[in-house]
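User: Here's a structure from my thesis project, written as C-alpha cells. My advisor, Dr. K., wants to see whether a designed sequence matches the one we expressed. Can you design one independently, without my sequence as a hint?
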C-alpha cells in the first residue's frame, strides 16, 4: 500500500491516514515522503506499518551510519542528520505541549546538543547464551544483537564489552557505566556487596565536583551534555534558603547546588542511592529514602525557595502533583525525560497558578526520539 506521510509524531515516527480514516504510524518514514508500506499491527482505531520502499524520499533523509540500524531499533532516527533530528523533535514537543499541556511553547526555545557519536556513558546489555557475548535485545523480540562497535556507546564501553574478562562475567544482564576518565564499572543482579564496592562503584567529575555513584543506580548517560544541563539548572535556581531535590538519585542536583542554599533536602526511593548521596552532600543536607509522593503527603507545609523534580518517564505521581498544586511553593524546576508526561503535569500545574518562565531542551540521546526537557515554573 502507498502512503503519503503528513507529519512526524511522538516517538519520531511518520503519521498518515489510511483510506478508511484510521491513523497510521510509520517508523522510519519522514514528513513529506511517499512510501510503500506493509501493515505490521492493526487495531480498530489505528494501524502501524513498516516501510517496504521509500518512493519519494525527503531531502533530509541520509544513509544511516550503523550497519545494525534496521535490526537494533535503538537509534531509530539515524536516517536524518542531528540538526534535522533536533528540528523534528522540537516540532513534536511543541505539538505535544499544545495538545496535552494546552501550552504554546515559544518557537525559539533552545535545544542544546553535543557530539552525535560515542556519547553514551551508560548501557544495559544482555548475554547471548550461544556466543557468550553481551549485546542489545532486538526491538520487540527476544533475539540478542551482538555488535563489533556500537557508534553511540563511548569507545571505552565498546572496548570493555569486548574484553575477554567481561565475556566471562556470569550474568544475564549487565549494567555498565563509563565515568569519562577511564574507569568502566559494572553491576549485575545478585552481585554481592564487596564485589559491588570493587566493580560497580565509580566517581564522576561534573560541574567542578566529583560525585560518587555506582552502576546499579540511575545516573545520566550523556556526560558531555550533562555539564550544560548543570549550568542551566544553576542559572535558573539562583540562590535561597531551602532547596528540595525530589527524585534525587545520588543527590545529583542538590550536590551541584549546595553552595547556593543554606538548607537542603533530598528525597529518593532507591536505598542504594543513599550511601552515595551521603558522600556527595555535606552533613547539613537532610537525605530521605522514601517515595516522593509519601514524603510530600507527610510534609504538606513544606515551602522551599526552590523545588527541583526529576521524575522517571511516568512523570509526577498524582499525589505528588496534588500536594504541589495545593501548597505554597513558588518556584519549581522540572527536569523531564518524557515530554508527554511533562506536558500532562504542566497542564495541572498551570491550573494551580504556575506559569512557564523558561523552557529548554537537551538532545541527550542523538539518533533516538528522546529529548530531555527543563521547565522553570513560577507562581505569583
Ligand atoms: C530520572 S532519575 C533522576 C535522578 C537524579 N535527579 C539524577 O539526575 O541523577 C529518577 C530517580 O527517581 C527515583 N524514583 C522513581 N520513582 C520515585 C518515587 N516515586 N519517589 C522517589 N524516587 C523515585 C529513581 O530511583 C531515580 O533515581
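Assistant: Designed independently from the structure alone:
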Amino acid at each position: 500500500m502507498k502512503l503519503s506521510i503528513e507529519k512526524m509524531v511522538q516517538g519520531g515516527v511518520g503519521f498518515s491516514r489510511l483510506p478508511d480514516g484510521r491513523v497510521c504510524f510509520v517508523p522510519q518514514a519522514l514528513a513529506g515522503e511517499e512510501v510503500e508500506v506493509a501493515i505490521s499491527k492493526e487495531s480498530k482505531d489505528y494501524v502501524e506499518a513498516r516501510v517496504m520502499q521509500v518512493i519519494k524520499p525527503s531531502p533530509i533523509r541520509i544513509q544511516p551510519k550503523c550497519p545494525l540500524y534496521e535490526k537494533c531499533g535503538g537509534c531509530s532516527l539515524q536516517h536524518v542528520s542531528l540538526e534535522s533530528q533536533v528540528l523534528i523533535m522540537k516540532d513534536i514537543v511543541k505539538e505535544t505541549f499544545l495538545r496535552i499541556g494546552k501550552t504554546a511553547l515559544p518557537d525559539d526555545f533552545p535545544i542544546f546538543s553535543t557530539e552525535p557519536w560515542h556519547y553514551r556513558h551508560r548501557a544495559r546489555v544482555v548475554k547471548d547464551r550461544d556466543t557468550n557475548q553481551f549485546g542489545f535485545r532486538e526491538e520487540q523480540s527476544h533475539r540478542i544483537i551482538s555488535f563489533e562497535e556500537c557508534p553511540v556507546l563511548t569507545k571505552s564501553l565498546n572496548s570493555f564489552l569486548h574484553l575477554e574478562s567481561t565475556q566471562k562475567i556470569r550474568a544475564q544482564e549487565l549494567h555498565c557505566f563509563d565515568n569519562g576518565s577511564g574507569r568502566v564499572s559494572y553491576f549485575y543482579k545478585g552481585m554481592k556487596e564487596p564485589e559491588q564496592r570493587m566493580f560497580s562503584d565509580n566517581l564522576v567529575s561534573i560541574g567542578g565536583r566529583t560525585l560518587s555513584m555506582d552502576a546499579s543506580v540511575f545516573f545520566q548517560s550523556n556526560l558531555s551534555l550533562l555539564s550544560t544541563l548543570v549550568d542551566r539548572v544553576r542559572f535558573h535556581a539562583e540562590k535561597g534558603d531551602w532547596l528540595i531535590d525530589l527524585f534525587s538519585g545520588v543527590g545529583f542536583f542538590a550536590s551541584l547546588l549546595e553552595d547556593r542554599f543554606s538548607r537542603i533536602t533530598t528525597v529518593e526511593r532507591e536505598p542504594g542511592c543513599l550511601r552515595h548521596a551521603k558522600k556527595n552532600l555535606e552533613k547539613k543536607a537532610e537525605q530521605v529514602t522514601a517515595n516522593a509522593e509519601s514524603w510530600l503527603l507527610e510534609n504538606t507545609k513544606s515551602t522551599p525557595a526552590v523545588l527541583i523534580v526529576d521524575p522517571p518517564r511516568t512523570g509526577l505521581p498524582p499525589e505528588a502533583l496534588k500536594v504541589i498544586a495545593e501548597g505554597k511553593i513558588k518556584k519549581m524546576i522540572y527536569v523531564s525525560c518524557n515530554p508527554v508526561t511533562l506536558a500532562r503535569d504542566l497542564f495541572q500545574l498551570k491550573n494551580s497558578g504556575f506559569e512557564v518562565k523558561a523552557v529548554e531542551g537537551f538532545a541527550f540521546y542523538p539518533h533516538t526520539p528522546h529529548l530531555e526537557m527543563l521547565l522553570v515554573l513560577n507562581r505569583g
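When you compare it with your expressed construct, this may help: The domain at 2-61 is CATH 2.40.50.140 (OB fold (Dihydrolipoamide Acetyltransferase, E2P)).
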